[in-house]
Amino acid sequence: MKKLKHEQELLKEAIRVGGLYLKKRGAGEFEPTDGSDTKITAIYRLLVHDGLVQPLAKDQEDLPHIRHKLALWMARNLPADHPLQQ
Fold first, then answer.
1. Contact present, 63 and 40 (Cβ < 8 Å)
2. Which residues, other chains included, contact 15 with Cβ-Cβ below 8 Å and sequence gap of 6+?
3. CATH number at residue 41
4. Which of 28, 73, 74, 81: CA 20 to 30 A from 6?
């Protein structure tokens, strides 16, 4: 697993965008008390369910791999001129 250049920032953006997608999709919404791990797992599972990301192998379905997968998803969906793409 190769670390991305702005992986932490991409992950924060993925949580923000994923939360909006979750709400718009009608799958629920996050409470202010929900932890980031809960949010990350919920967003990942919804994206896999909707076919927007390829699921991880069963032996790799842990938090570090899920975080990396969401950062990759966000990096691929940002416009080319976005600051996190530099």
1. yes
2. 36, 39, 40, 43, 70
3. 1.20.120.1930
4. 28
